[in-house]
Amino acid sequence: MKIVKKIKDLRSHISGMEGNTGFVPTMGYLHDGHSDLIRTSIRDNDNTIVSIFVNPEQFCEGEDLDRYPMDMERDIDILNTLGVNVLFLPDKMEIYPSGYKTFVTVREMDEVLCGRSRPGHFTGVATIVLKLINIIEPHYVYFGKKDAQQLIILKQMISDLNISSEVKSVDIRRDLDGLALSSRNSYLSEKGRKSALVISESLKYAEYLINEKRITDAGIIKKNIADLILKIGDVEIDYIEIVSLRNLEDLDKINLNSTLIAIAAYIEGVRLIDNIIFGEI
Amino acid sequence: MKIVKKIKDLRSHISGMEGNTGFVPTMGYLHDGHSDLIRTSIRDNDNTIVSIFVNPEQFCEGEDLDRYPMDMERDIDILNTLGVNVLFLPDKMEIYPSGYKTFVTVREMDEVLCGRSRPGHFTGVATIVLKLINIIEPHYVYFGKKDAQQLIILKQMISDLNISSEVKSVDIRRDLDGLALSSRNSYLSEKGRKSALVISESLKYAEYLINEKRITDAGIIKKNIADLILKIGDVEIDYIEIVSLRNLEDLDKINLNSTLIAIAAYIEGVRLIDNIIFGEI
Questions:
Q1: Model confidence over A69-78: pLDDT tens digits?
Q2: What is the predicted ipTM?
Q3: In the CATH hierarchy, which fold is given to the domain comprising A183-275?
Q4: Which of B162, B164, B166 has the highest number of chain A CBs within 10 A, making it the mutation to test binding with A?
Q5: How far is CA B131 from CA A166, A239, B10, B90, B96, in A?
Q6: A40-58 residue pLDDT tens
């Protein structure tokens, strides 16, 4: 695997590559969720480029930028083993040089769900992804469904801005106990981790209510999820939302072809998210 | 000249083109300033694509979107005569389809000079130019120096977002009497047009004070410009600013390698801009 730190060197390397290129942007501290994205890209493309860049612009005031987990040696081992062709590993000044001023916003969609408690987060995400796509010009770019709002916002951006790269999404990867994989799970104590299971369990219960009990009222579904979660004392709900996959607007009724049920909650001060999706993103 | 209205058709036409492509985005009602841009592109590239799209997103509340001058037959004649290869002539829904949400902002730079009296204008400009560049993927994109702030903002955007197209700028085209060409000049009465000459004359006087009288104090230059303009009763100054070419920040002293002296003024309700530039943009 070639490791490249400078945009100029990456472009020159890419110009010598033949065939399709898949791109997987990450913030490192890779887990099996990332590996699923990377394996999908390797399967579908002649070349796979992975970036690791902890993007300061997508962290808000008081968030965990300074303590975001990192283990570069392990990440490089994983990428080598998977068979990645190029790791792009820029430093902050390479991405945001002195005097940097340009930001992309996907309006409305960035104000709901996680956007409410993370102002500016999705502007940071959209901006870094646009920059990386412009640098790499991949045929396909891969995102996980765990960050469903991010995925929907980035698809909207790529369509709105007439970008020729195509977004591919990959299912949520869960541990055996059901917890959705996240680099931030490493912050949790064993007890916190156990409490966190209620999030995925409540989503499974919602799925049961919808698929088996034919409940379509979004309010009833949300109340059932909240009741389950609030039974566990140390989980603080940020939001439980039921929205359209198309535009992230609130739904009153479950639409089996276009619904996102998304949860964000704090456990031991750690913000975790999870979701289930009805329909295709 | 091929006239294309749909993005899909334009992309398919471009994919069959060979050699370098130059792109000149316009809002139509072409004058000799546009022709200079187009001739430069034709001279320097194998293919030249011109777009005509009156971009609603760059007009503010109360501006002249609904009465912006248009003469498509004449424009097409001009483009044919110049030897343009492709005219891209999209309608509004092709550029901003229903549910459109994504906008690009070049922060700080868009709040000064014209940004102050035209909130949102440069977000509209940056967004349409980014979209058109993504659709056309030109090697070079051409802008006039009359819209100096626009030119500097777009260069910043293209650099910040790692876009591989390169900006080329072309000098201001003036009528024999010195008035900078603008589609909006057509709004002026003969009397208004005469009053408007004070703008370019005051800039010439500023140039004389700087080059011949070696005056470097920006305050003195601004005062001399204002005194000249205010002698003409029916010209209302919006701003007279002296800023750095690099970041559009105010300058106290003229820097002969990086200074923009920019004026905006209203004559008969028509907003006109003009400038002189010391250094290279």
A1: 999 999 999 9
A2: 0.96
A3: Pantoate--beta-alanine Ligase; Chain: A,domain 2 (3.30.1300)
A4: B162
A5: 16, 34, 13, 12, 10
A6: 999 999 999 999 999 999 9
